[in-house]
Amino acid sequence: MQALDLAERLDDGEYQLRCLWGLCDYHTWIGDHRTALVIANRISAIASARDDRPATINVERQIGTALRYLGDLAEARSHLERMIRQYVPPAVRAETARFQLDPRLAASGTLANVLWLQGYPDQAARMAEQQLVGAQKADHALALCNALVHTACPLALLVGDLPGAERLLAMIEDHVARHAMTVWSAMGRCLRGEWLLESGEMAGLDILRHTLAELSDMGFVMRRPYYLGILAKEFGVHGEIDAAHVTIEEALTLSRVQGEVWCMPELLRIKGDLMRLSGPAETTHAVETPYLESLELARHQGALSWELRSATSLADLWHHSGESEPAKSLLSSTYERFEEGFETRDLQRARALLDDLRGACDKRPMTTVVTLLTSHPSGSPSRRKS
After folding, report:
1. 1-87 in CATH: which number?
2. Any idea where the domains of the chain sit in the sequence?
3. For the chain, which ranges sit under pLDDT 70?
């Protein structure tokens, strides 16, 4: 802040921008995405006033990143695509230092995450691969970490590609060890913990728990709500129900405070799953509540991938409560809006449940269909084109 104050007193626009870029990135890393967006918009205003086209284009990435975490996916995608479309590489490589790394590569990674959330897993995978190849060609340590840790490996885990995630984890662990990158090493351990848990290895629980504490001590809490959700889910799976409920509530609270709303639909879904694990004390109506909240928020964000997970969980609840017809209607209306990704884990699970639901519905008369949940926010169930 002292550097920014000095730059402002000297009316030095270039160093005002450099200070603000650093502050914006700092607030992103500590998970304060609302403040990061305010700073990014300030950068945009200063850059425009100075007619600084490179800065004006680059800040689109920072605006898009903040909006992604805040759950405004359509706007985030618009800013990121505009940045990628308009970016012109500097004539001299050293000029990239002004923005710390190649802005187009970083924007491509954030866009890949947005595409997955919006329900385009295949496009997300292609974008992540482009970022990774670009970072390898650039031979830039930070750019490669960013591509591996923030994009390629998390997306592999989200789609259920455990062999692919394991290969990427080996790359992360080798890279951060060679470059002594402490924070990135810890983020890699979070991903390793998640991979172990997805592979059925309980050792991942302690790795994830201890690494999250380590990152928190460093002041790095970006994505912490999401990882707390994973911890809560695994506590529940392993019978630690009280710890699971405490952890998921912490995750939801932190998500609201930090503005990491992007993962809140998934956290609400996990809360519903944990309530089901609590046993018969939780009524179907009570368990429905977080699932319905998750669906509503996912639809508001345009996060079709989270919506499918929530629809699958709610449909399974209804199915086991004897309401197979509304369950089928809900899940099929969500599943049918996908245009790709049918080999990914979430769509395969949804398809398997749909087959069970159709079989159950064929065996008994049609029941009342719940139409509230099957309507799309726009009034049409049709899938928007990319």
Report:
1. 1.25.40.10
2. 1-87, 89-196, 301-386
3. 1, 5, 7-8, 91-100, 280-282, 364-386
